[in-house]
Amino acid sequence: TDDTGEVQHHDTTAVVATVSAAYSAGALTTVSLNGEEVEDHVALATDSNVTSSGGWVFALNRVDNSVRVYTPGSWETPYKEFAVGVNPQQAIVCKDKLFITLYGEDHVAIYNIDSGTLAGSVDISSYDTHGDGTPEASSAVVLDDTLYIGLENQDQTWTGIDGKVIAIDCASEQVSGSWPVGGNATIALAGDTLVARWGNWYNPDYSVAIDGEVGVLDPDSGFTAKLSEEDLDLNIQSVAFTDEGFGVLLASSTDGTDSYSVHCVDVSDWSMTRLADMDEFVSDAVANSEGEVWLATRPHWINGGDGGIYRVDPKACAFVGERVPTTLPPSALTFY
């Protein structure tokens, strides 16, 4: 408990979706927080995401569009497994309901965890501004019983246009707000601060784009940019923040080398410090309750590298311990 008597959650374990270099096999793997115990458990689809919410761990299978619900620590048999819509991205619990964002659909699905049945949906078709049938709902966070979702709004050339963050009231299951951010919009939390990121990966000529921003989303006043790709001369790939407001920003170079850089960010003043350059492809970055951000990395198809998990203390802006190798390269991770 903290000094108010409120029970505080402390993560004990990382759950990792791993996949072979040839994408022929995948596994659910757990890693102790000190990085010393790594254990493979069951096979996963080769395009899977893992998330944790509401005391559950979810494995989202984007090959055959299904979701497994696991009781943490019981990996051999899922608590439930059920089919969902096209390309599930994020599973998150709010008001005891399981909300699933679907990249290939025009709605957010709501499931009953105990029965594994569809309990409802939230129509987001009006946000499909480029007319391909989906606004590409992806990232999601919960704050004060409200679900915030990033709508990437990519067209068929992988260009994001008119990306937004929307809010869904979890009790009424209705959209309660929306804010224009920019193409390929994503949403994250830094403590109680909503942090949005937007920006395209490439220009129409396939040069690296530097049109994006990272900033604060205030539900009352909208999006305020704090970091600019143009000013930084970087293509920001993703951000992840601890509850204290320290985070990691991952960026790719603009010089055609396909290299990645890792930066530490302090949300209190939006100062940024470059920690390292990496040859590996960084596929995921997730913060845990202990003040670390873990990076899931894979050998890069051009630059090589070892792959594995790197632990970062963003407050100290330093790596923690040695690289954690896994049997298969990691592609996504979460904590419980």
Key descriptive features of the protein:
single chain, disordered N terminus, four-stranded antiparallel β-sheet, 336 residues
What this model shows, in words?
- Helix content is 1%, strand content 53%.
- The protein is built from 1 helix and 28 strands.
- β10 and β11 (117-123) form a beta hairpin.
- The longest helix has 4 residues, at 229-232.
- The two termini are 17 Å apart.
- The model is unreliable at 1-7 (pLDDT under 50).
* Oligomer kind: single chain
The overall strand count is: 28
Calculate the terminal CA-CA distance, rounded to whole Å: 17 Å
**Major β-sheet profile:** 4 strands, antiparallel
Rg of Cα set = 19 Å
Give the strand line-up of the largest sheet: 3-2-1-28
Helix content: under 10%
Task: Write down the overall mean pLDDT.
Answer: 94
| N-to-C series of helices and strands | EEEEEEEEEEEEEEEEEEEHEEEEEEEEE
- Contiguous low-pLDDT stretches (5 residues minimum) are 1-7
Backbone structural class: mainly beta
Number of helices: 1
- Given the C-alpha coordinates, what overall shape results? globular
Q: Quick recap of the structure?
A:
This protein is an all-beta fold. 1% of the residues lie in helices and 53% in strands. Strand 1 and strand 2 form a beta hairpin.
